[in-house]
Amino acid sequence: MTSAGPKINLAAVEVAVGAILKYIDEDSGREGLWRTPERVAEMYGELFSGVGTDPAAEIDAIFSDDVTHDPVLVADLPFYSMCEHHLLPFFGRASLVYVPDRHIAGISKIARALETTARRLQVQERLTGQLADAVMFRVKPLAVACRVEAEHLCMSMRGIQKPGHRVITTAIRQGPGGGENGATPAYTPSDLLGLLNNRG
Ligand SMILES: Nc1nc2c(ncn2[C@@H]2O[C@H](COP(=O)(O)OP(=O)(O)OP(=O)(O)O)[C@@H](O)[C@H]2O)c(=O)[nH]1
Ligand SMILES: [Zn+2]
């Protein structure tokens, strides 16, 4: 397991939040706001703890397995991320399915990779691709597919104001033909997408 500490200058963030408060509140000196810059900086340290961290590095428990060539599905992992356009959350669930070649991943490590890629300024498409890439790079499966379903608060509480909407993104990656040991992939990309769409 790797742990990510804050990679951002929290003291500078605190000063900047203090400045924003002065511009957005007519009584920014009131007691309720005294520690708000400090709280927000601390919160950003948590929300952006994945900055500068490679999601693939989180997948650090990989087990040899020559037998399993059937899909492994990790379904409905909850996540919270931050839209890089509006600094508002988008949140939902991510599911990932992969077809092992010679290795299987520690299941929790896939959730850790998701956490790392979510805890930064993001767009949903990139988050989806980064999770699939992390598994492809570290586990070297025959194929991997990822599905992310999320609501974006920038589309719910402002702007077009469509609360309850769902944005669904997918990413599919295939290993080099046949996999390391020459096994023929028995599952097509559309099979994997079918598993993701019909999970549970
Ligand atoms: N593709 C993609 N777009 C996103 C994501 N998060 C937010 N956006 C979009 O980024 C776009 C930014 O558009 P702009 O016109 O620059 O910003 P805006 O005027 O605030 O746009 P509105 O949200 O339409 O009011 C919007 O269409 C958002 O919905 C994401 O994860 N992926
Ligand atoms: Zn947004």
From TrEMBL:
One function term, GO molecular function aspect: GTP binding
Pathway linked to the protein: Cofactor biosynthesis; 7,8-dihydroneopterin triphosphate biosynthesis; 7,8-dihydroneopterin triphosphate from GTP: step 1/1
BP-aspect Gene Ontology terms: tetrahydrobiopterin biosynthetic process; tetrahydrofolate biosynthetic process
Enzyme Commission number(s) from the entry: 3.5.4.16
Assigned GO CC terms: cytoplasm
UniProt keyword list: Hydrolase, Tetrahydrobiopterin biosynthesis
Hydrolase is among the record's keywords: yes
Superkingdom of this protein's organism: Eukaryota
One Pfam assignment: GTP_cyclohydroI
Catalyzed chemical reaction(s): GTP + H2O = 7,8-dihydroneopterin 3'-triphosphate + formate + H(+)
SUPFAM superfamilies: Tetrahydrobiopterin biosynthesis enzymes-like
Coiled-coil blocks: none
Hydrolase in keyword set: yes
Domain GTP cyclohydrolase I, chain residue ranges per copy: 14-173
Entry's family note: Belongs to the GTP cyclohydrolase I family.
UniProt protein name: GTP cyclohydrolase 1
